[in-house]
Amino acid sequence: MPPTIATSLKLPAELKATIDEDARKQGLSSHAYMVRTLADASERARLREQFTQDALAAEQDMLATGMGHTLEDVQAYFAQMAEFRAGRAERPAPLAPRKLL
């Protein structure tokens, strides 16, 4: 188990009561609930940052090469994927990039 560091967290009484209730409903201690919630929030922040960096890199690649997908093509593809996942259609072929600029 990795080492832990004690920290103090002052919470408004109403928030603490809400945390206690939510933790109880999930069968967790308030401490475990807060640790898990903070870890989840931290991971989401890292994932958002990575998503942003990937999107910016993709944009730069698109601008440099002129290749990409139109919004209409992407929307149509997602609609086809929804039909596939619902079992009403075959899996659509992946979108091939095309010259946009």
Q: Would you kindly provide a written description of the structure presented here, covering whatever features stand out?
A:
With about 100 residues, the protein is mainly α. The chain is built from three helices and two strands; from the N terminus they run ααβαβ. Strands 1-2 form a two-stranded antiparallel sheet. The longest helix has about 35 residues. It is elongated. The termini are far apart.
| SS field, number of helical segments | 3
Structural class: mainly alpha
One letter per element, helices H and strands E, the order comes to HHEHE
Q: How helix-rich are the residues, as a percent range? A: 55-70%
Question: Given the C-alpha coordinates, what overall shape results?
Answer: elongated
Rg computed from alpha carbons, rounded to a whole number of angstroms:
22 Å
Largest sheet: 2 strands, antiparallel
End-to-end distance: 53 Å
- Please identify the oligomeric state: single chain
- Parts with pLDDT < 50 across at least 5 consecutive residues: none
The total of beta strands comes to 2
